[in-house]
């Protein structure tokens, strides 16, 4: 039995919506790994991407990390030079 069929059986058993497809899990994996590690190369390797453009779809820009890096009161050790 292939992975797709196993997923459909599990989806039906779990009474999950029909629009939940196996690809959703792959995209969630890529998004979480990139978000938690910041390591695009690891995402590319584990997902079999050869082109960085394919892996970039898992990057969901979060400006909070930029704000934290630029905020001098956040206790960050990031230093800038003038």
Percent in strands: under 5%
| Whole-angstrom Rg | 18 Å
| Multimeric organization | single chain
Order of helices and strands: HHHHH
Q: What overall form do the CA principal axes indicate?
A: elongated
Low-confidence stretches: none
The CA-CA distance between the termini, in Å, is 62 Å
- How large is the count of helical segments? 5
In total, the number of strands is 0
Features:
5 helices
Describe the structure concisely for a colleague.
This protein is mainly α and 82 residues long. It contains 5 helices and no strands. Helix 2 packs antiparallel against helix 3 (40-47).
Structure write-up:
The protein is mainly α. The longest helix is centred in the middle third of the chain and has 16 residues, at 22-37. Helix 2 (22-37) packs antiparallel against helix 3 (40-47). It has a domain at 14-70. It has helices at 3-13, 22-37, 40-47, 52-55, 64-70.
Write the layout of secondary structure elements.
Elements: H1 3-13, H2 22-37, H3 40-47, H4 52-55, H5 64-70
Helix pairs in contact: 2-3
